[in-house]
Records
---
Amino acid sequence: MITVNALSEVAALMGDPARAAMLSLLMDGRAHTASDLALTAGITAQTASGHLSRMVEGNLLAARAQGRNRFYRLASSDVAHAIESLMALAGTRATPASRTAAWRRDPDLRFCRTCYDHLAGQVGIAVTDSLTQHGYLEPKGPRDWKLTEPGELFCERLGVDLPGARQASSRHFARQCLDWSERRPHISGALGAAIADTFFKRGWAERLRRSRTVRLTDSGRRALGSHFGATV
Amino acid sequence: MITVNALSEVAALMGDPARAAMLSLLMDGRAHTASDLALTAGITAQTASGHLSRMVEGNLLAARAQGRNRFYRLASSDVAHAIESLMALAGTRATPASRTAAWRRDPDLRFCRTCYDHLAGQVGIAVTDSLTQHGYLEPKGPRDWKLTEPGELFCERLGVDLPGARQASSRHFARQCLDWSERRPHISGALGAAIADTFFKRGWAERLRRSRTVRLTDSGRRALGSHFGATV
DNA sequence: TCAATGGTTCGGCAGAGGCCGAACCATTAG
DNA sequence: CTAATGGTTCGGCCTCTGCCGAACCATTGA
């Protein structure tokens, strides 16, 4: 059956430690240069080049040339979600003896990280919960959210680029994304990305280099309290 | 980082063609003997034994001895969902040139199949849609459903074993599961499994050997019309 | 007790593929 | 033009692991 082969092929692509390290870095949703990815994976540039072209061939990554550099990013959010689901599985792999799941061992990552291009972890959940509890966001269908009229006002007041988010017409606007550490949905899609952008632009959060981990700044912690009525 | 290794390890387990073939068979939610799995994968028993113990070690499978036989099944529905998400990815891997996704090439599988232990494909979606449109099922939270009072009556009339489904207390009762061919949610969890059981027990559907494909019988087609008001 | 059947362990073989050094191409800066 | 930098291709090495034959263990049935 053709799907069996396809399954093993795509899984095998993710199943190499060096490629998994690259994919993990790319889970921050940004594009990275080939040498950057090689450094992260701890391999030479020529080895990385082989891995990268194989992942492009397998439709996991997309490549874009810019000057002397070549930038690689995840091919789609579907890829990101498949990786998240595997990570969720890996996180629960703990035996009954040592109950501590893998992600528990990195509290910073659990606290706040990027999931592709939006916020995840405790902070992502806190933001999402605040939006739903204030009636700014309502569940719509099984995997989407509806931004209510008060929600639009709130976002505008916050400085979220709503027109920009709506412009990406091919993309889901407000999507539910399962958080693998909190095991509950957080806001993703174009709106989720726009909200995350706001956090970065206003200095509420900072990306850590070579990691999906995000640091919540002091002003970010205050903003969570004043704007969202949440404490983390 | 520990999560990176965990990711590559679990992906590598799924990334071998023989193991992927076994996992694919086990996606029917049932337990299969070691020799059965070996036959499916097209390898000898001793080779299969090695694969199986590695997958048990990696918490993908659970094993149960019974007499001379040894039965293997997926360790949890999380495993099934991770595999589904990879299959969804593999299905969209088609190049722009040949746009037909992989699952399109198996219309029977797309029409009706088991997803772990419940019905999926067009039939699964038809059942789910019917239940929601009649007000028997209401979305509850992002990933669950609520069975309404009329819904309970309907299920009892149908012969669904509701007490049995409720007994599995550790399990989600009515869960939303994303259908990778229809790209919409169908009913899973204990209730989804109980409904699927009803279909098999009443002779409305039959499992095909060595496959997740399910055949809808003539009486099943009529039942869909009379009980669910649906045509497929 | 003895065969038959299902399953696992062991040992050795062979192929796949990850890795790097070296060479090569492309773009930018001086 | 030349040098520097980023990236890829090529060739060969080497490990990893999937595979099977053979032997072994466990359960069942006669």
---
Amino acid sequence: MKVKDEQKYDRLIAAAIDLLAAGGLANFSTTKVAKQAGIPQSNVYIYFKNKQSLLEAVFQATVHTESVAVAAAIDDNAELAEQLAMSIRALYDFALAQPAVVTALQVLTEDVALKQKFALKADDTANQKIQHLLTTGVTQNILQPVDLNLLRYFLTRPIFHYAEGRRHGLYSATTTSIDELVVMVMGAVLQPTPFQTWLQAQSE
Amino acid sequence: MKVKDEQKYDRLIAAAIDLLAAGGLANFSTTKVAKQAGIPQSNVYIYFKNKQSLLEAVFQATVHTESVAVAAAIDDNAELAEQLAMSIRALYDFALAQPAVVTALQVLTEDVALKQKFALKADDTANQKIQHLLTTGVTQNILQPVDLNLLRYFLTRPIFHYAEGRRHGLYSATTTSIDELVVMVMGAVLQPTPFQTWLQAQSE
Amino acid sequence: MKVKDEQKYDRLIAAAIDLLAAGGLANFSTTKVAKQAGIPQSNVYIYFKNKQSLLEAVFQATVHTESVAVAAAIDDNAELAEQLAMSIRALYDFALAQPAVVTALQVLTEDVALKQKFALKADDTANQKIQHLLTTGVTQNILQPVDLNLLRYFLTRPIFHYAEGRRHGLYSATTTSIDELVVMVMGAVLQPTPFQTWLQAQSE
Amino acid sequence: MKVKDEQKYDRLIAAAIDLLAAGGLANFSTTKVAKQAGIPQSNVYIYFKNKQSLLEAVFQATVHTESVAVAAAIDDNAELAEQLAMSIRALYDFALAQPAVVTALQVLTEDVALKQKFALKADDTANQKIQHLLTTGVTQNILQPVDLNLLRYFLTRPIFHYAEGRRHGLYSATTTSIDELVVMVMGAVLQPTPFQTWLQAQSE
DNA sequence: GATGAATGAGGTTTCATTCAT
DNA sequence: CATGAATGAAACCTCATTCAT
């Protein structure tokens, strides 16, 4: 089942991302993916076992792309809180640069029927780095002592939402800036005292 | 579109909610809705112009139910910050009590293809009450001075996410309590100083 | 089954004519007729036994309207050939004045499934007058000695076709005038010698 | 849309022609076509993009068949007027030999909703030949100086009408012969003088 | 491995007609 | 008589998946 022509494989993934971003899961079909990729319909089943399997691959690909973009933007030498702020801004930039990837990822993550069906690849180093950042933050009493999934939720979903809102004109830089969003997210994930500290560091 | 037999209308809405909650938009069909409601499929078109129109009705119904539940739980005499905290808890209770309604609402709100296609009914008084709360909060420099949509996002989505996580075992009361979630959300939406004030009021 | 509210009856007929003219039999339905007439769907079955019966009534109505218009325009004192020419021009004027009626009639007459299912009302005096004209013409060796139906075909269909062509820009007055069409039709229905005579009378 | 199994394609076209001839556009459906062709309904969409596209293919096929039959019967060495007379008789013979093809073509040509939606294939040589005949006739002052579409109308529709009338008993050889029809059509399309000339040539 | 063909199920919508009120 | 509701059939079209070449 694996990959003779890697170029076609990639084209299928890319087409699937575009399709998901444009119409959501409800309008997603192997037929459309193949057409968009310029590949015969039945070829989808050479590269993927079935529709579900294709979606899983899309999930892995988008998570990975996003993690890499975010991890790359983090300065390891900065304060932990500052590293988080950086990750938020990086995610925002990424969401503006690659809206389809982000939207596709959101579609897949949000879907009721697929929820938690997808297992994250354990060996994604970029992903691990971010995970490590959170663990450390909790241990050092900088971050709220809650489940990492919840922290991650606050650090991603609102940013996706805001980025999409900006792209579609729901938000504008004047009514709601990215700086304000960063403050809000930091206010949620940081413990009160580190939050104050971080705020003062910002205003200097 | 005048409806005599309101009972069937209601059954269709209820069936649609259940279906959306169970399978998302991708697995939603008028055929299934009708079957679930125990009604011939073509009857759906007596009560609704088309599929889209049915979804719109579901949207209105779920928004309304949720707004009512939340608005009812708010004590008008409490401090504004405290009213917000109440609304968060009310929303959480509602999400646990009526998970299907909340999930259906989320499915409809989150969908790429439908996004912002649905117009909120302007005359929903429960909804207006919450909107008013936010406006006042911003004017009085208690809430972050951002677009009301973004405030509302923070005040709903994370709660839905957490409630669903609790229901599915992703979160448990010991690793992450609702109290902690309330603090996080308040940290996001309140301005730093009112946040501090509110925190102290909590610990007393 | 017959007609309490004659106004609604007429509205249904008129709506049916418009519908047939706009979309042909393939897009004709009792649902659409009722909607166009602003009348509840099920009311169609008060005024007409069924769809077929409604179409039959439309047929009678359109044939009658057309016959009256044509018959009224014929000068009984003119030469027989000239009377025919008048009828051609009258039909053309009528087709331009009431395109929907003419098109609906054509749709009904041309349809394979209905063909010759409709019996012409025998008591239509306007219709009888034209029929009489043709009989006389054949008897007097002015018209070609063929079946009256065929004469009538030549005296109507090409005119409908031309009128519609004019309305839709297929023909224009400069490339093909109504005068030329009259000559062609007269050339078809008149016997050669009367045709020559008629032609000379024209040029004087 | 490349077709391997041309046999099924042809069967679909043939089934469509029969269906159109039997019931007109109003009773035409892909379901029925498929059933008549002995093929699953969804297979229609392997060979044709949609219903409209199937009808277009039927149109091309019938026009082509008819043009070929007519063109083949024309003796290039005969007088132009005589060639036209030949084409009329050829069309009549064709209409008797292949009534379904002719009726289907008429149904498609006459329909209000489809009118002028179908583009004639420019590369149909048989069709071109007839068109050339008409152009020449007009240039040489043999045919009436009108739009070619109108000439073509007179040279086809009445013949179809007559042939169908014969088949259904509306006309019989004794009341109205094909010879008489030829004279009528020639009287319509020829200019008066060539018409006289042609008539005399006939009686010799 | 690649591809066009095949297929049966399912989806949305419209319809003609009937019925109860 | 008028009308909204009801219904089952049928229409068009798309899909996921399999198969033969």
